[in-house]
Amino acid sequence: MASEINNVNMIRKAEIEKNSINNIQRINPAKTGKDLLSATREMVAQEFSALNTKASTAQIDAIARAIVFGLIKEKEI
Questions:
Q1: Of 19, 22, 43, 54, whose CA is between 20 and 30 Å from 70?
Q2: Which pLDDT tens digits describe the chain residue by residue (77 residues)?
Q3: How many domains does the chain have?
Q4: What is the pLDDT of residue 67?
Q5: How far is residue 36's CA from residue 20's CA, in Å, rounded to a whole number?
Q6: Are residues 39 and 17 in contact, defined by beta-carbon separation less than 8 angstroms?
Q7: Residue 43 sits in which domain range?
Q8: What is the pLDDT of residue 49?
Q9: What angle is formed at CA 14 by the lines to CA 22 and CA 17, rounded to 5 degrees?
């Protein structure tokens, strides 16, 4: 039961991240994949900052790349 709740929470968080990326794209449209990655890195850094959590540049980059990869894969389906 607890793992099911965790899975639901993870899905909700992913949907929130996706909506955040969509908002960033509306505000600052990405012309290339690199622009999208830069915008996503900025969003991830802002979220870590809002949580008062430290993250290295490599961690932020890895999270941003995973988000962008997920968005690209979703569009292919």
A1: 54
A2: 666 666 667 777 777 777 777 766 666 555 556 677 888 888 888 888 888 888 888 888 888 888 888 877 776 55
A3: 1
A4: 85
A5: 12
A6: no
A7: 2-76
A8: 86
A9: 35
Tokens standing for residue 75: 């569009």
Q: How many residues comprise the chain?
A: 77
Structure tokens that stand for 49 in this block:
């900052």
Q: Quick one: which of 20, 31, 2 has its CA closest to 71? A: 20
Cα–Cα dist 75/3, whole Å: 28
Q: Whole-angstrom Cα distance, residue 77 to residue 74?
A: 5
Residue type, 6: N
Provide the terminal-to-terminal Cα distance of the chain, rounded to the nearest Å: 30
| Distance between CA atoms of residues 13 and 31, nearest Å | 26
